[in-house]
Automatic annotation (TrEMBL):
It comes from Nitrobacter hamburgensis (strain DSM 10229 / NCIMB 13809 / X14). Pathway: Amino-acid biosynthesis; L-leucine biosynthesis; L-leucine from 3-methyl-2-oxobutanoate: step 4/4; Amino-acid biosynthesis; L-isoleucine biosynthesis; L-isoleucine from 2-oxobutanoate: step 4/4; Amino-acid biosynthesis; L-valine biosynthesis; L-valine from pyruvate: step 4/4. Signal peptide: none annotated. One of its GO terms (biological process) is L-leucine biosynthetic process. Its cofactor is pyridoxal 5'-phosphate. This is Branched-chain-amino-acid aminotransferase. CDD domains: BCAT_beta_family. Acts on leucine, isoleucine and valine. It catalyses: L-valine + 2-oxoglutarate = 3-methyl-2-oxobutanoate + L-glutamate; L-leucine + 2-oxoglutarate = 4-methyl-2-oxopentanoate + L-glutamate; L-isoleucine + 2-oxoglutarate = (S)-3-methyl-2-oxopentanoate + L-glutamate.
Length: 370
């Protein structure tokens, strides 16, 4: 039986059955883990899980002890990579409460990803409720200071069938991982490698959605970047191999000497929520922002002439990473003398202050969970 994409009956009113773990991490062990969590290796005690099948629609919503999934070896996701995910963070405010940042935008993007990957779209209120339930039960895991609780919602095709078709069954889950400040002692500029051998996305492909397969396809290029002594890879368009697209997991901005910004247009890139937030903040402060194609050759010559002042990457995990150096098979060039620039740092502070509830939130981007 195929998936009926409009059958989401009853899902708007899903109630989560909350079953606290019988074996919570002892507070001393938790404090130890929170002291230096790094990124993506420490996990909280619980997870949220919701299941889908054609007969019941979305059902079985639970918050329970974090545990392994048991999957039949013929489970569809293991063979055809029908998988999508999201990434957002919970931030501890000075008053001890906890904010989410634009979870509605993640919920919408998750639904778009599901539709592109022929998966059952999860109603946006269920996505947000799952996250809020998990943050509430694992509130002790939200780090203070510049740390945050990284939330990873994801969905896998769970039908046991080797035929190539959209799975009839899905598991949606949310796990949480406390993370420290991405950069200790302020953001260090990153060096990036221009991938000329591998592309990330083509028109009509999956570049605009957050599916695991995009990352699988980017790893070889990222490994090449590391081999060349760079931190990250930047991809060019798949047709002309000239236009800058984005990094493996972050969007990119350019800052010019007239104060304007430019960023690659939507189409084959991932529509980042950080990207969108920066465009909004820039425009309301009177900064001109162009969403337009920009070539690697133009970038190189603008860096040489001084027309280009800064470049930075952006995404939920690191917020903003200044780009200090660009390396390619055709030579290297530095930006802003290899240092973090004031425009990148200014946007970084504006965003972080809103996320932690320290600055006015004119767009209603933050959502108080606690
Ligand atoms: C998640 C992601 C981004 C950044 O999106 P945010 O919503 O800002 O976190 C950029 N590029 C890719 C490929 C991504 O997967």
């Amino acid at each position: 039986m195929g998936v009926s994409l409009d059958t989401i009956d009853g899902a708007m009113t899903l109630k989560f059955d909350v079953q606290p773990t019988a074996n919570p991490t002892p507070p001393t062990a938790r404090t130890e883990k929170l002291a230096n969590p790094g990124f993506g290796r420490v996990f909280t005690d619980h997870m949220a899980v919701v299941r889908y099948n054609p007969a019941k629609g979305w059902h079985g919503a639970r918050v329970e002890s974090r545990a392994s999934f048991s999957l039949d070896p013929a489970t569809a996701v293991l063979h055809y990579a029908q998988e999508i995910f999201e990434g957002l963070k919970a931030y501890k405010r000075d008053d001890g409460g906890v904010n989410l940042f634009r979870p509605d935008a993640n919920a919408r993007r998750f639904r778009n990803s599901a539709e592109r990957m022929a998966m059952a779209p999860l109603p946006e209120p269920v996505f947000i409720e799952a996250i809020e339930q998990l943050v509430r039960i694992d509130r002790a895991w939200v780090p203070g200071g510049e740390g945050s609780l990284y939330l990873r919602p994801f969905m896998i095709a769970n039908e046991v069938f080797l035929g190539v078709k959209p799975s009839a069954e899905y598991i949606f889950a949310v796990i949480a991982s406390p993370v420290g400040s991405y950069f200790k002692g302020g953001p260090a500029p990153v060096s990036i490698w221009v991938s000329e051998n591998y592309t990330r996305a083509a028109v009509g492909g999956t570049g605009t959605v957050k599916c695991g397969g995009n990352y699988a396809a980017s790893l070889r290029a990222q490994a090449e970047a590391i081999d060349r002594g760079c931190d990250q890879v930047v991809f060019l368009d798949a047709v002309e191999r000239r236009y800058i697209e984005e990094l493996g997991g972050m969007n990119i901005f350019f800052v010019f000497d007239d104060g304007s910004l430019s960023t690659p247009p939507l189409g084959t890139i991932l529509p980042g929520i950080t990207r969108d937030s920066i465009i909004t903040l820039a425009k309301e402060s009177g900064t001109r922002v162009r969403e337009e194609p920009y070539t690697i050759d133009q970038w190189r010559s603008d860096a040489a002439s001084g027309r280009l002042k800064e470049a930075f990457a952006c995404g939920t995990a690191a917020v903003i990473s200044p780009i200090g150096k660009v390396c390619s098979a055709h030579g290297d060039f530095t930006i802003n003398g290899g240092a973090a620039g004031p425009v990148a740092m200014g946007f970084r502070k504006k965003l972080v202050d809103i996320q932690y509830g320290r600055a006015a939130d004119a767009h209603n981007w933050t959502r108080k969970v606690l």
